[in-house]
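ingest -> validate -> predict -> emit
validate: passed (alphabet ok, no gaps, 143 aa)
predict: started
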Amino acid sequence: MTKKMKIAAYVLAGIGLSVSVYLAWMKLSNSEIFCAGIGDCDVVNSSPYAEIGGIPIALFGAAAYAVLLGLIAVDAKPGFLGQNAGLMIFGITLAGTLYSAYLTYIEIAVIKAICPYCVVSAVAMVALFGLAVWRLVALPEAS
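emit:
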């Protein structure tokens, strides 16, 4: 991973982690989300689709972003994690992108409300997926 790609990945994962932690905190504390009149954050975050088995989806997102930050940090370093970080980043971002697409569909077609924070997280995950694909295709020697 080039230095610019690594910086971009850190920024994107940091944004995703921040948004996910905020949404998880708001969900767990039953607090109203600051949405500034853009979208219906509380409608989305209080829907049945905002959790799995009583665990907020945002917590899963936060965990994924935290793992991505760790993998970005060890990428290309000696050892199992460093040598396989590129593939693990690809797998996590692929799953995250597919799940984000599903949740975006749910927001638009089922809930009929958009959460801008969710959109930011989805865009960050898709961009991270793009970087992961680019890394594997354009920089195969680094994989």
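Residues 80-111 form the longest helix (32 residues).
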